[in-house]
Amino acid sequence: MPVHRPRQAQRINQLFILVSITTVFALYFLFFRQPPVRTHGMSGSQQPHKQGAQSSQQPDAGKLATASRELVVASVKADDTAWIREQLADWKANIYIADADATSNSGLSVPVNKGREAMVYLTYIIDRYDQLPDFMIFMHGRRYQWHNDDPIYDGASVIRKLQLQAVVKTGYAPLRCTWIPGCPVELHPLKPVDEGPIVRQQTELAFATVFRTIFPGTEVPAEVGATCSSQFAATREQVMLRPKADYERIRKWLVETDLPDDISGRIMEYMWHMIMQKKPVYCPPAGECYCFTFGLCELKCTAAKCEKQYVLPTYAAVPDGWPAKGGGENGWPKPDWNQ
C-alpha cells in the first residue's frame, strides 16, 4: 500500500526548493551583476553616465591575446622594481616614482606625493585618458608584500594568474579575494564607531565628508566594504564610464586636503570600487572570486577565505631576503606552508 505524504510536508518541500533557487539567483545578481553606485549630478560634464559595464558574451580569445595592456605601478625611490619587466614582460610598465624630484629624469612622477598610490593612479588616468589601453592593472611597486593575495605574497604570481576574461566581464577586478581586511564591512560613514586601529577610526570619521566631495549629489552609504589594498585590474571602458573631469576633481581634492597621507590614502582605498561603478559593499564570496578572477576553482572555501591561499601575517614588513629567508619566524609562514 503506497504511503501518501501529507499536503503540509509537500508544501514545505516546495517552499524549500523555491527559497534555494531564489537564494542562488540573488547571490549571482548581488556580486556579479551589480548596478553601479548612483552618481547623478557628480560629473563636471553634461554627458550622462553610462551604466556599469558587464558583458554577457564570452570574450574572444584572439582579441584578448592582442589586446593592449599596461601596468600602472606606484613606487618610491627605495623600491626595487626590476622584477616587473623581468617577470611581466608581456605588459607595458608605467613605473611612477612618487617621491621623485619633479625635475629629475628618473621616471614618471606625480604633481605631489600625497595619498599614497591614489595620486599615481589618478595621474595616469588623467594624463592618458584619451589613449588608455584595453586593460590596466593598478599595482604597488614591491614584488613581495602582505597585500598580495598569494601563499608567499608574490605580486608576479598574482598577475600571471589573472584571467582577462573576468576583467572583460566585470570591467573591474580587485587583485584580492580574501576578505580580511576590508570585508564584509570596513566603514560605517554615517555612524562612526570607536573600534579597531586608530587609522581605521580616523578614516571612518572623515569618509562621509570626502564622499560628498568626490560624489556630489550622491547619498553617503551607511556601509562600505571591499577587499583591501588598492590593487586592481580595469578595462578602458570601465575607467571611461566616468568623464575625465571626475578624476580631475578627485585629484584636486587629494592635492588640497589637509588630511594626513595615511588617512587620505586609506579613504581612497575604499573609494576605488565605487569610482569604478561598483556598489558600496563589494565583497564577492572568496571561492567565487578565486575561481572567476584567477582560475582557481578547486578550493575549499568559506565566504571569507579559501584554504591554502593566504595567511594574514603578524607584521606588515616582509622579512629581508623573503621568501628564501624569514619563513616560519615572527608570524610569517614557511614558503611551503600550503603544500
Structural summary, described in words:
With 339 residues, the chain is of the alpha/beta class. The chain has one domain. Helix content is 35%, strand content 9%. It is built from twelve helices and seven strands. It has helices at residues 7-32, 61-66, 82-87, 117-128, 155-161, 164-170, 198-214, 236-239, 244-256, 261-269, 272-275, 286-294; strands spanning 69-75, 92-97, 135-140, 172-174, 225-226, 232-235, 281-282. The strands form two sheets. Strands 2-1-3-6-4 form a five-stranded mixed sheet, with helices on both faces. A two-stranded parallel sheet has the order 5-7. α3 (82-87) links the parallel β1 and β2. Residues 1-9 and 15-56 have low confidence and may be disordered. Residues 42-59 have a biased composition (Polar residues). This is DUF3431 domain-containing protein. Pfam families: DUF3431. The chain crosses the membrane at residues 12-32. InterPro entries: DUF3431.
